[in-house]
Amino acid sequence: MSLDAGSSKALYRQLADILRSAILRGDYAPGEPIPSESELIATHAVSRTTARQAMALLGNEGLVIIGHGRRATVRPRSPVRRLARTRLSRAERQHSGGTFMADAAASNSRPETETTIVIEPADAETASLLGVDEGTSVLQRRRRMLLDGRPAQLATSYLPADLARGTQIEQRDTGPGGIYARLEELGHTLSRFVEVVATRMPLPAEIDALQLSPGTPVLIVTRTAYDNDDKPVEINRMTIAGNLYELAYDIPAN
Amino acid sequence: MSLDAGSSKALYRQLADILRSAILRGDYAPGEPIPSESELIATHAVSRTTARQAMALLGNEGLVIIGHGRRATVRPRSPVRRLARTRLSRAERQHSGGTFMADAAASNSRPETETTIVIEPADAETASLLGVDEGTSVLQRRRRMLLDGRPAQLATSYLPADLARGTQIEQRDTGPGGIYARLEELGHTLSRFVEVVATRMPLPAEIDALQLSPGTPVLIVTRTAYDNDDKPVEINRMTIAGNLYELAYDIPAN
DNA sequence: CAGTGGTCTAGACCACAAG
DNA sequence: TTGTGGTCTAGACCACTGC
User: Fold this and answer.
1) Looking at the domain covering A11-74, what would its CATH class be?
2) Nearest protein residue by Cα to C1' of nucleotide D6
3) Hey, what CATH topology would domain A81-248 get?
4) Is A123 helix (H, G, I), strand (E, B) or coil?
5) Does pTM surpass 0.90?
6) How confident is the model at residue A78 (pLDDT cuts 50, 70, 90)?
7) Interchain CB distance below 8 Å, B200 and A62
8) β pairing state of B81-84 and B70-74
9) Residue B77 CB contacts under 8 Å (≥ 6 apart), including other chains
10) Which of A107, B6, B127, B220 fits a 20 to 30 Å CA distance from B31?
11) Chain A residues lying within 8 Å of B203, measured CB to CB
């Protein structure tokens, strides 16, 4: 409960340990303030730097929210929304405005989408995923989705420009059922999706766009849609706030 | 390229921006050293604290690896292993020592597993997932898996103790096909799995067990195995180093 | 041994939040 | 206005790495 100056463990780490234990034990409830810097300085006889190092450590662990001018608080467990990937079934896709809209409807939230559409040559990675040559013209639909006014995820779709030319896929509003419905109308009947899930810390632009607080990682989901010839027809790269979402996958046992 | 003391942006953030851009641009290759604190101090006329704040920021973003006594280096992109969840098919399960072994075999690595087996009363969350009453005796198989001597993931299986009593599931070595094969032999034919994927920053114990460097989030996968009556028979909670793994899911388009 | 990063202190001034 | 956290400085001593 008190600091040991002789310990090989740094003072600020010991201090962080004390606070972390207290938080995990529930001494400070989610949303409640933890001791201020001044209090830590007084209680544990350390310098301000040491107190701040301890706080910063907990902030980067995602345990506390530190904000200018207000006391640091225990990070509330945000209500986690579950994104069920079964929503990719054809039936689900068709009577909704795409997977995001389906998820929004399921969670009783007001969805908004900002869309930017550009055509650019494919970089090496995108080209490889889409099965086209590097430099091939690719249509990018960059979207920022919000739920109830709060940023939820970033998503960019990539399709060969040839394939989308002159179709509603080039429009802001892709119509009922979204891109996938349009693709099937074009004769690209979809056979399966592959989603690859990874995680990393967000870049500053992503922190900004998703309004993330320190210590919040993002989920990076790369979805590839394959047609009946097992040819990739669309790539969707998603960046999802790790504190707000979890992904659920259903896997048959055979 | 140079710092602006009048800017509203903190000096250390400006400095971090400069370094980050240089790294992302490729000026410093992965694994290569970035400027030392002394160099930053000399080049940009800042105090050591400011230089260190900038470095720490990049460290927490996972862009650089900072180590005592050695120069900070650009974080090398670890070879990412893909964990294909199709490996959960019955055919795959049966001729391997479980999903971890299957993945290891697929990646030509030498797998090791440390296993601890305990029986404990279920906490509220586990009870709810397993569909049993809180406090019911639950068998826990805690495993730490290593590939080529390096920690790869932590996994704990939870099964109702009644169900596992007297079976090989209570042993360290669960035999060919692992737990799932034993469950099916016991009459619990598996119908499906649900995997829920989330991410967060690791706790100190996890950092230690997985040898994670700062700025590395973990993937938290909770897998539930259901039998033919759609009753959960096993829960598997996995903690996976986010810099080493990605998960691949195959989703039929229907 | 020299160079690098790790920890810690004391003190200063600023910016934001809330009463 | 008061208290809180944000930024920055100068300086000191320590511990690890690698020549």
Assistant:
1) mainly alpha
2) A68
3) Chorismate lyase (3.40.1410)
4) coil
5) yes
6) confident
7) yes
8) unpaired
9) B30
10) B220
11) 61
